[in-house]
Amino acid sequence: MRSPQGKFLSHLAIALATALPVAASLATTAPAHADAAVNKVVVIGLDGVMYKKVQEAEAPNLLKLAAEGTLGQTSIAPHITISGPSWSTVLTGVWDTKHGIKNNNVTTAPFAKYPTVFTQVEKADPGLRTVSIVTWPTIGIIAGAGDPHADVNVRSPQQPNDPTGAKIDAVTADSSAAAIANEGPDFLFTHLDQVDGAGHSHGGASTEYLAAVRSVDTQVGKIVAAVDARAKAYPNERWNILVTTDHGHRPLGGHGGQSADETANFLIARGPAFKAGVTNSSNSLVDITPTALDLLGVPPSPDFDGTSVVNAPNLGSAG
Fold first, then answer.
1. Are the beta carbons of 26 and 177 closer than 8 angstroms?
2. Is beta strand 237-245 parallel, antiparallel or unpaired with respect to 264-270?
3. What are phi and psi of 103, to 5 degrees?
4. Where does 151-254 show beta strands of DSSP type E?
5. How many CB atoms lie within 10 A of CB 154?
6. pLDDT, tens digit only, all 319 positions of the chain
7. What is the torsional sign of CA 232, 233, 237, 242?
8. How far is CA 294 from the centre of its chain?
């Protein structure tokens, strides 16, 4: 096991690396082919995205991920369709009725009773590297809650002349791709925000919303490409990608209610642990933490409302 000082220096190095956009070269050292197989998990959180709009926008990277893995679509009603409660649920595996977060005024207090995925992973195996790189700063509060918390907790800086949020999302995606390529963390959570901004400004039925979906899909593609390149370079690493959202948007914009558009949720799970072309009507954001812990060999919490989707039932065809 690494010494506390060595682990600190290693985490400091990745924090500095991931705070900057991807360098021109993402070279890695030669793979250790003799190493035992190890699972790695990347969770991509897309704020305010409706999967039906992913389909309408014909977003190639997200559609490809869904076709190559498990796609769950369901309603999260009566859960509160606001970012604070939803990302807290994503990162704890319990509904708002348990963690008690009702709005975006998030504090660290609820995560003492309902620890985050970062805390649960670190407690189970302090040698595992956990990373959070996000656009929305409030998620940094969640990732930094508890003891231990995320090893690396990066909140992308605001970018000049960025009315749509596309530039800051690009920084987040580039930083996440660099972390994957250069460090290969065991668990990485990243969050992209521009679609939610388009929903608030123009509505979920707008052309601007569809444009934002296509834009964020490009950023997802960067992260997936980094995962696939890393997996090829390091055959012993079994990389799994989970994608979800926190809420949808009303046609004219906004969320927080219980309409079908606001409560629409999806979960894409692609990787060696998931069969291609599996679809169901049950997997949702509450299953992210249980699934990640399952993949990393961490026992589930008895408090979980969600379940692992590693063995999710096939209730249809992705085609």
1. yes
2. antiparallel
3. -150, -160
4. 152-155, 187-192, 237-245
5. 25
6. 333 333 333 443 334 344 444 333 333 343 444 478 999 999 999 999 999 999 999 999 999 999 999 999 999 999 999 999 999 999 999 999 999 999 999 999 999 999 999 999 999 999 999 999 999 999 999 999 999 999 999 999 999 999 999 999 999 999 999 999 999 999 999 999 999 999 999 999 999 999 999 999 999 999 999 999 999 999 999 999 999 999 999 999 999 999 999 999 999 999 999 999 999 999 999 999 999 999 999 999 999 999 999 977 665 543 3
7. negative
8. 16
What are the two backbone dihedrals, phi and then psi, of residue 131, each rounded to the nearest 5 degrees? -135, 140
**Cross-strand bridge partners of residue 194:** none
Q: Residue 98 in contact with residue 152, Cβ under 8 Å?
A: no
User: Nearest CA to 122 among 239, 295, 293?
Assistant: 293
Q: Which helix (H) or strand (E) holds 288?
A: helix 288-295
Question: 19, 215 in Cβ contact below 8 A?
Answer: no
Which residues are bridge partners to 134 per DSSP?
155, 191
Question: Which is nearest to 127 in space by CA: 151, 143, 154?
Answer: 151
* Cβ-based neighbours of 134, under 8 Å, separated by 6 or more: 45, 140, 143, 154, 155, 156, 172, 189, 190, 191
Question: How far is it, in rounded angstroms, from Cα 198 to Cα 280?
Answer: 28
Contact 183, 31 (CB under 8 A): no
CA distance 56 to 272: 28
Report which DSSP code applies to 274: S
Q: What is the number of alpha carbons within 13 Å of residue 165 lying toward its C-beta?
A: 25
Q: CA 258 to CA 172: how far, in whole Å?
A: 30
Q: Within 10 A of 95 (CB to CB), how many other CB atoms are there? A: 19
**Which tokens go with 111?**
């995560």
Adjacent-strand bridge partners of 267: 72, 244
The Cα 255–Cα 300 span in angstroms is: 31
Q: Are strands 152-155 and 70-75 parallel, antiparallel or unpaired?
A: unpaired
